[in-house]
Predict the structure.
Amino acid sequence: MSVEKKDLDWGNLSFSYQPTDYSYVSEWRDGAWDEGGLTTDHSITLSECAGIFHYCQEVFEGLKAYTTEDGSIVAFRPDLNAERMHDSAARLEMPPFPKERFIEAVREVVAANAAWVPPYGSGASLYVRPFMIGSGEVIGVAPAPSYHFHILVTPVGPYFKGGLKPIKLKIASYDRAAPHGTGNIKAGLNYAMSLKPTMDAHRTGFAENLYLDSESRTFVEETGGANVLFVTADGTLVVPQSHTDSILPSITRRSLVQVARDLGITVDERPVEWAEVKSGAFVECGLCGTAAVISPVGEIHEGDAVVSFPGGHDEMGPVMTRLRETLTGIQDGALEDKHGWVFKIA
Ligand code: PLP
Ligand code: COI
């Protein structure tokens, strides 16, 4: 059944919030999640002593829903978001929201907001943001005694202004994640500490920071909101790994590794030294994530030194383009979904 879409300028949406018709909410208290359900109330009222306000007990997820060519509404691999949120919650001593219920809640809230899912071909999508907060009162450092799980949805366009134009990164002078800390989970605390470096980057003309590992400042990790990928002159896709478990396990990156293998591209997942990047070993660079999809990187600056990627400096390079087209083709139903990644909602 198709619904009449909202009257929005779908082709010109930015990556920003606007409330839709419904959010999803469930509360955990006395050791159990309640039955949960949809709400038209997009606000939350909490005690001044709620755990979220004092000890930052918050985890979140990000995924997208799309309209396919035949008018269906689908989401991309929500099972992996459910799993990652489970891991994130466990790391912050929060009660994980059951994976099957997470997937069902995504289905319910996206279906209820079908009129807000951007039409096929608009380049936009419905961003789905599940999050969980410590809502119960704590004053000593301790896990909160109760929790809220919410999902908000909002229609979005490209994360980086300029869409597919290669962006410039700088090597951050701050660190993103401690070795064996929380860099491998999706918790708001990781982003609070990235705000200053992010704004410093923006103020000096860069789209984002590329963070090095904080233990040795030798290896490339990722940016504030996306994993990084490189391509060598012989067409190998090089995917940085962390010795210290401080890179977020991006679902887009894990999918692209499979897509690359399916396309016959050699994939090398290993630690990557910043010195190797500086030596000119790579011809293309890109950022990948739900919000970023694949965004090409043209240059990385470290002080006055500039690393330029000749295969994708002025426009997205051939390997990144192939990966992006294949992934988005699978997501919007134009290409075969061999791995069962596309989750039909309506
Ligand atoms: N790395 C960070 C720090 C992120 O915030 C994100 C966004 O979710 C990603 C990587 C990409 O992950 P995913 O592809 O699962 O969206
Ligand atoms: C996402 O890609 O879903 C993210 O959460 C990145 C965020 C920084 C917008």
The chain has a mean pLDDT of 96. The longest helix spans residues 78-91. The pocket of pyridoxal-5'-phosphate (ligand 1) is lined by residues 62, 222, 225-227, 248, 250-253, 289-290 (CB under 6 Å).
